[in-house]
Design brief:
The structure is a homodimer of 246-residue chains. By secondary structure, the first copy, chain A, is mostly helical. Chain A is 67% helix and 0% strand. At the A-B interface, helix 7, helix 10, helix 11 and helix 12 of A face helix 7, helix 10, helix 11 and helix 12 of B. Chain B binds a DNA duplex (30 and 30 nucleotides) through helix 2, helix 3 and helix 4.
Chain lengths: 246, 246
DNA sequence: CAAAAAAGAGAGCAGCGCTCTTGCTATGGA
DNA sequence: TCCATAGCAAGAGCGCTGCTCTCTTTTTTG
């Protein structure tokens, strides 16, 4: 017992490392709570420490600065959103009548919207104004890409993009779209790749307008409007409308 | 001379009121300068006062709180953006070959984008995360609506929306669209009204993604991509593509 | 000309992010 | 088993912030 414990700190990780992890999580949880209450601007290291019964300077052993704490929350938020979207798609895909590509697309869009409305301040953190100077640390990239990759996957699975009326791609963008396609979806037509990137940004325009109150005296039935707009986005990326034949 | 001056403070407005206005403007200008440098989070009343050679408490005679200063900057930003968009449209409309509706639409979209890229922190103020608690003062509404109204005007002027393939409007949204249309564009088909609201939000999704760096390792030639996406938006609101016949 | 309104100056309060120093304790090799 | 060491909490403190209060000066007004 003693031999395996002393030389391998990876498996069980002495009580100290374990405590460190637990405290790190507790700090983030408390910070997230305060974030939900008052927004990122009011998030205070001292208040978090106070609530956790520790002194403010002790907190710097876990996060070297306030912005680092925020960065950690940003990464968690991206992951939380990505997971919510992926789970919504998985749940929907598992139901009895397999969903059409448009239905899958709208399901994912609605999951993004629901997550944003449930966590408005965390949404603001990741899709609102960048908080510190301008530094978007590269570590957030994979987490940030999850929703985009999920939408691409849906379109690729559909592969039934049989020449719907897509906006023709200007020559200036063919190279651009080709480069993007090489990265993420080399099997899709360039028109679809470009439309996907645009739809990706436009989706967050819709969500952001609702979360940030821009629809306040304009749109009342926002759920219905969002479903309509998300369906429109699905069409712009080449997913076919439901067959009118019944 | 004396009679007209004493009883009518409206015309010339004693030297005091004039000074007050000038100082108010100077405060906002300096605040805007600091905003452009360091962003809204770092904007400090004390620093503004210091730069203006006054003591911090004196500044509270002009703006009762930091958030009130920010609110003033927000209104100015909305107006600045609205004016930039309107001027771009007016300039384009005045050129020799009168522009097509799509060209006008894209011109306005590009003006919005250009303004946002030139004033990223001010853009973040109005279309990023709301700054204070959540209060969007009603005073900002008219200024905020200018770009939207401009886009509506272009579509109305076109009135050539002869049944392009618009996403059909679900029944649940007919009442909604009818209400919006009654407010702003009672002469447009409901499908176009709904598509306009969606396109309005989606436009700012595109702009926001670029300004906030979400396109960073994704889209390189962002001007070309934006023009492409804005053209797509024009189509979704029923503006006809340029006739392929040459 | 005197009363009143408006503006500036200064001190001060509580809170913030962050640093540095000082003790304490659990950990891992001798 | 013992002990040097590394990790951690605590406290004091610096300079900054938003904001309030009081006091004095300046300008407008009846």
């Amino acid at each position: 017992m003693s031999t395996s414990r002393s030389t391998r700190p990876s498996a069980v990780q002495g009580a100290r490392a374990r405590a460190r992890q637990e405290i790190t999580v507790a700090i983030k949880d408390e910070a997230r709570r305060q974030l939900a209450d008052d927004g990122a601007a009011k998030l205070s290291l001292r208040a978090v420490a106070r609530e956790l019964g520790m002194v403010s300077s002790a907190l710097y052993r876990y996060f070297p600065s306030r912005d680092d704490l925020l960065t950690a929350l940003i990464i968690d938020a991206y992951d939380s959103l990505g997971e919510a979207a992926e789970r919504a798609d998985a749940d929907r895909t598992a139901t009895a009548p397999p969903p059409s590509p448009v239905e899958r697309w709208v399901t994912v869009c609605e999951a993004v919207r629901a997550w944003a409305l449930a966590h408005p301040h965390e949404y603001a953190l990741i899709y609102g104004s960048p908080v510190p100077g301008y530094t978007a640390p590269t570590t957030t990239v994979p987490a940030a890409a999850r929703v985009g990759l999920l939408l691409i996957g849906i379109v690729r699975d559909a592969h039934g993009t049989r020449g719907l009326a897509l906006t023709p791609l200007p020559d200036a963008l063919r190279a651009e779209a080709g480069r993007i396609a090489a990265d993420i979806a080399s099997d899709l037509p360039l028109e679809v790749v470009a439309a996907l990137v645009a739809a990706w940004a436009q989706l967050f325009g819709l969500v952001g307008f609702e979360v940030f109150g821009q629809f306040n005296r304009v749109v009342e039935d926002r759920a219905a409007f969002f479903a309509y707009a998300a369906t429109g986005l699905a069409h712009t990326v080449g997913l076919l409308p439901a067959p009118p034949a019944k």
